[in-house]
Amino acid sequence: MEEILNSLKEELNSITTINSLNEIKAKYLGKKGLVTEMSMKIKDLPKEERKDFGQNLNKLKNDSTNLIEEKKEEIEKEILNKKLENESIDINLPGTLVTIGAPSIVEKVVEDLEELMMSMGYDVVDGPELELDKYNFEMLNLPKGHPARDAQDTFYVKGDELLLRTQTSPVQVRTMLEGKGEKPVRVICPGKTYRRDDDDATHSHQFMQIEGLLVDKNISLSDLKGTFDVIAKHLFGEDCKTRFRPSYYPFTEPSVEMDISCHHCKGEGCNICKNTGYITVSGAGMVHPKVLEVCGYDPKEWSGFAFGFGAERLAMLKYNIDDLRVFYTNDLRESKTFDRKEASL
Amino acid sequence: MIDLEWVKDYIDIEDEDLQKLAVKITEAGINIEKVITNNLDNVIVGEVIECKMHPKSDHLHICKVNTGSEIKQIICGADNVRKDLKVIVALPGAKLPDITIKKSKLAGEESDGMICALYELGLEEKTKEAYDRGIEELPKDAPVGMNILKYLKLDDTLYELDIHKHRNNDCYYHIGFAYEIAAILNKKVTLPVAETNPVKDDIKNHFSLEVKTKKCPYYLAKMVTDVKIGKSPDFIVRRLNAYGMRSINNVVDISNYVMLEYGQPLHFFDKDALGDKIVVRDAKENEEIKTLDGVVRTLKASDIVITDGNKPVCIAGVMGGENTEVTENTKNILIESAIFDSVSIRYTSSNLDLKSEASIRYGKGLNFEYTEKAIERACYLLEKYAGAKVLTGTVKYDNVDKTPKTVSFKAEEVNNLLGITISKEDVKKELARLDFPFTYENDTFKVTIPFRRLDIEPYVNDIAEEIGRLYGYHNLKSTLPVISTKKGEYIGDVKYRKIISKRLRALNLNEVKTYTLTSPKNASLFKYQNKENLNLPNPMSIDKSILRTTLIPSLLDVYDYNKKRKVKNINIYEIAKTYDASYEEESKIAVLMSGSYINNSWNGVNIKTDFYLIKGICENLLNYLGFKNRYTFEKAEISDLHPGIGAQVLLDRKSIGIIGKVHPSINKDDIYVFELSLNALMTKVKPLKFKAAPKYPEIVKDLAFVMKQDVMTKDIEKVIKKAGGRLLTDFHVFDVYTGDNIAEDEKSVAYNLTFQDVNRTLTEEEVLKVFNNIIETVEKETSARLRK
After folding, report:
1. Are residue B437 and residue B381 in the same domain, yes or no?
2. Structurally, how many domains does chain B consist of?
3. In this structure, are B454 and B550 located in the same domain?
4. B354 and B236 in one domain?
5. Is B214 in the same domain as B344?
6. What angle do CA A31, A37, A38 make, to 5 degrees?
7. Whether the complex's predicted ipTM surpasses the cut of 0.90
8. Of B377, B398, B419, which residue is a domain's last?
9. Which 436-475 residues of chain B touch chain A by CB within 8 A?
10. Are residues B205 and B250 in the same domain?
11. What is the CB-side half-sphere exposure of residue B461 using CA atoms within 13 A?
12. What is the CATH number of the domain that holds B47?
């Protein structure tokens, strides 16, 4: 029996395929196999030897089976390894790009600001772009003949009553009218606006404004300053410094211009900030009592602030873009790169 | 432009650093864009102490010049240079308009500077006459060593202002600006002398006035006689020059000078040419007047004219007539100081394309106090500098509201608006600085707003602004509003825009932003909605003359732009408002796709855009919005879409948009588009509901029908669905076959049918019964037959 086992071992060592293994398996463990034949011998043995022989035979069977099984696993593993080896690929070849669409660059900035303002409880609303003169001008303390109307040269659409809105402020008027002098107002109104400007690097007959309005009890200019600080830091980073300068708008009193420290030169003075270290990004102020009044809010009881940003201007500053027309030519080679998250997120 | 040397007449700022003052003024709200200080370093008064001819030249002189600190040798070519003459010396380093002075040698002799003529400093025009005069000869008492501009009193500091409209009436004249400085520095303003010695004769003996228009609330006239036209005094010439105005003669200069002092434009008529009467009235349509620039102007009925009772002599507030112009021979003058309706003046000025210092000021509005002061001041200056005799009295038309504007408030109202805490004493101090008269009783301030501040309205906000800007906005704290906490939301159609926008981006579509205003050509395309175009009555250009009714042509423009730049695979969308001739607004979503959607060519991956892909995108969007099973696509011929590859998109059986391939006559490339009405998508959908996966097995069977090519599978599917009943839970096309074994005008459409019951396991017999029923019904009700 020892011999049989040794010859089995020898034979197994010399083979590499499952076929040869099956042959060996048949040769030893098959119906007429060497081990099977051995078991035939048991009946010819004297009784007292049979027990030992039986035990040895069982051992031989088990050992042979195990040896063959082991060999089988070994061969199968080898085969698998070979197969895997053949399946190896050049992982440096290009992947199948699953791309995602990019936002318009100006829209990205708008959404960025919207998300911030919503986190502070501002609703995002819009209104018609074909707007009544009444809402676009008159109720904002800009009666016909007001000199400030000249600066907002207007596309009138029907007589002098219907126009393409020159600012998103009429949305504020509409929102206040809906509040009926009772509900506090906290909204931002991003949207398209139109003025009779020739398109060039810094002007566009169509552009986007983002205006904000908050009307509540005991609101002060300092609250506007604090709110602006939050916005500026959100858009331009924690290092951004802010500044208020007195200004004039017919619909706010007091009025201010809101500046941010020049992110380009860090306030040292450069071409972009015209050596002042600051860049104006917004016009703002306390809502004019006349405007509150015509919109149904009693200025003795309510106060509020309003601010407005030019969305393209914010995008130009934030992403160092020097031509406003970029936002409307829609060169996908440019906008495509905006399909990712901001570095700071 | 404000001349600080001039402002010094009204307020003591002798010791102020004008650069620093400019910063303070800017911080307080009057934006000083530029501080211009005229200086000419290293150009000084010198004295020639020795002068001899250059041995090697026939015209050069070798001079020894005392410059105060040292004696320099300077070579000079002017004929009039001589010993003991006080001259202008440009020392090495001086930057003259045409040359920077350096130490040099002239014909072998050292020259350590240059003796100059005025034109060489840029202070005079370089005429032949000026050239012939040679170097400038300064008076004997000119102090040696003094900077020349200082000596000539030309070292002015000027502020160039860029200020907001509301303050550009009171801050664009020197007295108004002096008040601004006074408030900032807490100083007092002194108004200039205006007292005359009128002669006995009263103006009323010579002149009468009639105002027949509502657009002239205030009109003052005074008369002076015996003026002597001549040169203006130096200070007037200098100040007008510094402002950028040319000196004409003493009389004309005085009218400009007073305008720059008080902001009130004056008009001087030649009294003898005018006659004895002025009638102010609305112009007649097409009335003509030859203005003093020699041009005949045609007026409109909305203009205001000054007439002599018959003919126009002046376009009020804009320009005088040639017929009554002050000339060299003028003896007697009628002075007009008036207020005209500012809106009317602005219209006239822009209609006639005539903008002047005067019309701009009338256009901004004037205050009657200074209308009075200016005319008195003009008389004073004419008396003093033009030898005029001032007649007694003023002819006046007065329909101006002189009620002072007052505002009452408590100190805390100012504090609340600004978010600061200043005491009532502080408020008092601030009001005093502003020179705003006020009373204080029962904790309440009552402030009278000075007439010169036309911009201030009687609201506490206006006072808060004045106090705030003097307090300094940089001193404000940054606080956040103390209000209720709530979540902000997208409201109304913005909400849908955002949801859809984000979904489309996730579907590999890039957002674009195009113009609402479009060209007639684009406006004529994709008119699938039967909407009339809305044309702008007054467009800037034909390219932007129509409000678009559809976004698709704009997307095609973006496609062309990018294709020209070799961008492949253009997949874009836009969400924007559209308009039509009934002024109705409709927000739309437009998508354009072309090229590959997903591509990795080396690896054989290329999902090309075709109708079914864009349809899939459209379905994805509609499913996402919750409209599954509520929409259908109905084949239709749609203008500017491929006649065989186009469809209406229906939601609840109503058309909400179109989808298809762009007609090759519009663009030869394979471009697919769809456009949906966003408004139509803003409808209610069912809430999300959990549905457990079926517990019992499903039975799947396939079959194929053969049908004519032009049969719509949708029609077959309707029948399958109906015949399949409750047990047919799902079915879909898995193959469309044409070719061998199928007639040429036919196609075979193979379906995969799923049968299932939620409550039990189905038997094969049950399923076969339904399956056979489907085949029978389809064959009976349609032209399709089972493919065997």
Report:
1. no
2. 6
3. no
4. yes
5. yes
6. 140
7. no
8. B398
9. 455, 457, 459-462, 464-465, 468-469, 473-474
10. yes
11. 29
12. 2.40.50.140
Rounded Cα distance between B762 and B772, Å, is 15
Entry pTM: 0.82
CATH, residue B292: 3.50.40.10
State which residues form the domain around B172: 2-38+156-185
CB contact under 8 A, B498 and A254: no
Residue B191 lies in a domain: no
Tokens of B724: 């399949």
Distance separating alpha carbons of residues B741 and B279, to the nearest angstrom:
103
Rounded to 5°, angle at Cα B218 from B213 and B224: 115
> What are the sequence ranges of the domains in chain A?
2-87, 105-338
Evaluate whether residue B544 is within a structural domain: yes
Q: How far is A323 from chain B (nearest CA, A)?
A: 15
Cβ separation B164–A162 shorter than 8 A: no
Q: CB count, 10 Å around CB of A103? A: 21
Under a CB-based contact definition with an 8 Å cutoff, are residues B593 and B684 in contact? no
Among candidates A98, A225, A327 on the partner chain, residue whose Cβ is nearest the Cβ of B598: A98
If asked whether residues B755 and B676 sit together in one domain, one would say: no
Phi, psi of B127 (to 5 degrees): -100, 170
* DSSP SS3 for B291: strand
Last residue of a domain, one of B359, B375, B398: B398
In a domain, B449, yes or no: yes
B498 touching A, CB under 8 A? yes
Per run of 10 residues, the mean pLDDT along chain B (length 788 residues) is: 91 89 88 82 92 88 92 91 92 87 88 90 78 88 88 81 77 92 93 93 94 96 95 89 86 96 96 94 95 93 94 94 93 96 92 90 92 96 95 95 93 94 92 94 95 92 94 91 93 95 96 97 94 92 95 97 95 97 95 95 92 97 95 94 96 96 96 97 94 89 91 90 90 91 90 91 90 92 89
Inspect the interface and report whether the beta carbons of B465 and A184 lie closer than 8 Å: no
Whether residues B645 and B504 fall in one domain: yes
Contacts of A282 (CB under 8 A, 6+ apart): A228, A257, A258, A307, A308, A309
CA distance B439 to chain A (A): 21
Closest residue in chain A to residue B465, using alpha carbons only: A254
| pLDDT classification of A151: cutoffs 50, 70, 90 | low
Residues B42, B47, B50, B51: is their CA dihedral positive or negative? positive
CB atoms near residue B701 (< 10 Å): 16
CATH code for position B466: 3.30.56.10
Q: Kindly compute the dihedral angle of the four CA atoms of residues A10, A14, A18, A22, in this order, to the nearest 10 degrees.
A: -40
Nearest of A324, A319, A320, A322 to residue A338 by alpha carbon:
A319
B226 shares a domain with B179? no
B482 touches chain A (CB under 8 A): yes
- Neighbour-count burial of A295, counting CB atoms closer than 10 A to its CB (0-12 exposed, 13-18 middle, 19+ buried): buried
Q: B44: which residues sit within 8 A by CB, 6+ positions away?
A: B67, B68, B88, B89, B91, B144, B145, B146, B147, B148
The values of phi and psi at residue B51, to 5°, are -150, 115
What CA–CA distance (Å, rounded) separates B291 from B719?
A: 88
**Contact assignment for B478 to A225 by CB distance below 8 Å:** yes
- From chain B, the residues in CB contact with A330 under 8 A are 512-514, 558, 561-562, 572
What architecture is the A105-338 domain classified under in CATH?
2-Layer Sandwich (3.30)
Could you tell me how many CB contacts below 8 A there are between chain A and chain B? 265
Provide the pairing of β-strand B61-66 with B71-76.
antiparallel
Q: Indicate whether B363 belongs to any domain.
A: yes
Cβ–Cβ below 8 Å for B498 and A225: no
Beta strands across the sheet bearing B444-449: B405-410, B444-449, B438-441
Mutate to test the interface with B, among A222, A274, A291, A307 (most CBs of B within 10 A): A222
